[in-house]
Design a protein that fits this description.
Layout: H1 3-14, H2 51-60, E1 67-71, E2 74-78, H3 80-86, H4 88-91, E3 99-101, H5 109-120, H6 131-141, H7 144-154, H8 161-174, H9 177-184, H10 191-195, H11 198-201, H12 205-213, E4 218-219, H13 222-235, H14 237-240, H15 244-248, H16 258-266, H17 271-276, H18 280-301, H19 307-313, E5 323-326, H20 328-337, H21 344-357, E6 366-367, H22 372-375, H23 377-380, H24 384-393
Parallel strand pairs: 1-3, 4-5
Antiparallel strand pairs: 1-2, 5-6
Helix pairs in contact: 5-6, 6-7, 8-9, 16-18
């Protein structure tokens, strides 16, 4: 007790006269203090609930919500501070707002519910089901962390081959072209299974071209890329014949054995090949590829060290390889022919076999290098002089009946 307090205490009790003030010391003067309790810190006291725990309980029990989020006819009662902690869109919303309506074409009620659950969860994990809608909604709400989580899933090995195409279809429905392009690059061994399906036949011209242009698609030969384009075109000839040049321009003819290119440009037993060879632009593609093959083979035969420089001087650009594969089923078709003769009808039969073998057939395919037709050097390296001779015999004018588009 202070001197003032002590004086006040005795004054009120005995009067404020000097003679009445006792000479004894008070307990406070003697050292009594509230801080002198022995082992106070050892008293067992019930703990207080942590503030974060209390807030977490309130948030998860939706206690005292202070904001209504409207999406279409759906109403969500939320805590504003939770939304503001993760979403830049809500962070920029005026603090006095009690209701916020979100664009129903940008976010679905299901996606918002999943996002709010993600926000209030301690260790949220993005699930496969609905991931694209979640990504679109997170981007709309400007939730950078969730967008990054979704991208980490898209960029993982879980989205390859058949699963990549499933996500491609989802992205296609939502108009997410960036995701579509990413998933196309993830489809390799699954490509021929896709070509065998109805889904391939329903693709738009631009979509077909995107697949046929991709260097990651896995095939036994560039012929299969050509035949895939023919399958799409002739599935609906009346409406798709105008797309011939666009689709066929995706084919890397210089990867096709030269003797088959000569056959394409002169005579072909395949009516589909004969039909596209009526187009002057297609004929030019084939002849340009033959020019490249002959020139490349010629310079290599001369042991010219700088083949690339020679090709550049001739303005002949070489093709980029595809991903080459082999499988036991395909071998049966090759062996049944006695040599590497792979026509369009055989390709369609091979696709029918893929349909029968089921969705996981692509897993049995093996990567090879070089492609199968190049392992038969007798067939692939047709005499350069023979090719040149045939090219010199070609008529300089486009044959009668050629379509010029």
């Amino acid at each position: 007790m202070s001197d003032f307090s002590e004086k006040l205490f005795f004054s009120s009790s005995f009067g404020d006269t000097a003679e009445n003030i006792p000479k004894e010391r008070s307990l406070f003067k003697m050292g009594l203090s509230q801080n002198s309790i022995f082992k106070w810190d050892q008293i067992s006291q019930p703990p207080k609930t942590d503030l974060l725990v209390s807030l977490d309980r309130m948030v998860k029990n939706y206690t005292k919500t202070d904001l209504q989020v409207l999406i279409g006819d759906e109403i969500f009662n939320c805590h504003k501070i939770v939304l503001q902690a993760y979403s830049k869109l809500f962070y920029e919303t005026p603090t006095e707002a009690q209701t916020v309506r979100l664009a129903a074409d940008k976010i679905t009620p299901g996606a918002f519910s999943a996002i709010y659950e993600w926000m209030i969860s301690s260790n949220p994990v993005v699930k496969r089901q609905g991931i694209l809608q979640l990504f679109i909604a997170a981007r709309y709400l400007k939730i950078s962390e969730l967008v990054e989580q979704c991208w980490s899933c898209f960029d993982s090995d879980n989205f390859i081959e058949d699963q990549a195409f499933l996500l491609y279809l989802e992205a296609r429905f939502s108009g997410e072209t960036m995701i579509m392009e990413l998933m196309i690059s993830r489809i390799s061994k699954f490509f021929l299974t896709l070509v065998a399906s109805k889904e391939f036949l329903s693709l738009s011209p631009d979509e077909v071209c995107s697949f046929l242009k991709c260097s990651q698609i896995a095939v036994h030969s560039e012929l299969e890329v050509l035949y895939s384009g023919l399958r799409w075109i002739f599935h609906d000839w009346e409406s798709r014949q105008s797309e011939i040049v666009k689709v066929i321009s995706c084919i890397r003819f210089a990867l096709i054995p030269p003797w088959q290119l000569v056959e394409f440009s002169r005579t072909s037993d395949c009516s589909e090949i004969a039909e596209i060879m009526k187009y002057g632009e297609v004929i030019k593609m084939v002849r340009d590829s033959l020019d490249y093959i002959v020139s490349d083979a010629w310079y290599r035969k001369l042991n010219n060290a700088d083949v690339a420089e020679a090709m550049e001087r001739l303005k002949l650009n070489g093709p980029i390889d595809r991903v080459w594969i082999d499988d036991k089923v395909f071998h049966k078709f090759v062996e049944s022919k006695g040599s590497y003769v792979y026509n369009y009808d055989t390709f369609l039969t091979y696709l029918d076999t893929i349909k029968d073998l089921g969705i996981d057939f692509w897993r049995s395919m093996k990567h090879v290098d070089p492609p199968l037709h190049m392992t038969d050097m007798h067939n692939y390296e047709v005499s350069v002089s023979e090719i040149v001779k045939k090219k010199l015999e070609e008529k300089s004018d486009v044959e009668h009946g050629v379509k010029l588009n």
